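Q: Sequence in, structure out?
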Amino acid sequence: VGLSGGLDSTLAILITSVAMRMMDRPASDMIAVTMPCFGTTERTRDNAVELAQRLGATLKRIDIGEAVKVHFRDIGQSMEDHSVTFENGQARERTQVLMDIANKVGGLVIGTGDMSELALGWATYNGDHMSMYGVNGGVPKTLVRHLVKYYADTCDNEELRDVLDTPVSPELLPPVDGQISQKTEDLVGPYELHDFFLYYMLRCGFEPSKIYRLAKQSFAGQYEDAVILKWLKNFYRR
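A: Exactly. Output:
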């Protein structure tokens, strides 16, 4: 499992931990891989390490920065050009590392991407988009948060509470003053809105005008109508 210190990978390793107990296999059979690079903050890195240790997983720390730089030199990508190539190059390197470790030990790469990310295309094709077993693939982001919160409250786990307080981010752009600079919901919109849209589109088959009308009623006083419409259009575009 690639462990970033974010919500999705946290839920993925919690699910894997439960599966290990159900199969009477040692927790150390889980290989948690943290792969810091240009956008990694100390907060997420430390949470990933502490969670892996608490669960008893085998922890590997592989800094992918130099490997990504070599790849960028090979393809002529400037380190100053923080384009989609800069971002996706890191995600694909992480997936290569995970896949190769899985081959080496005869294991499975556990996918971390959730249903909301898949719906919005907020994943790197041939990167975190791929795995052998995508345990979060049918779980929308708001439910991911709820499940991690339930586990944190049940187990009185401070690391999980800090994960919940961390802004959702792929951490592919350099931090500013040690803080996360790339916040997903600033870019694609609030997940509570997108999950609302997704539910009524997929489960009920409602057309956009009806979903918009329902959203205006459900989020009255929380989001202005123009904001709801903006993100609804973005949802359908993506």
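The mean pLDDT is 94.
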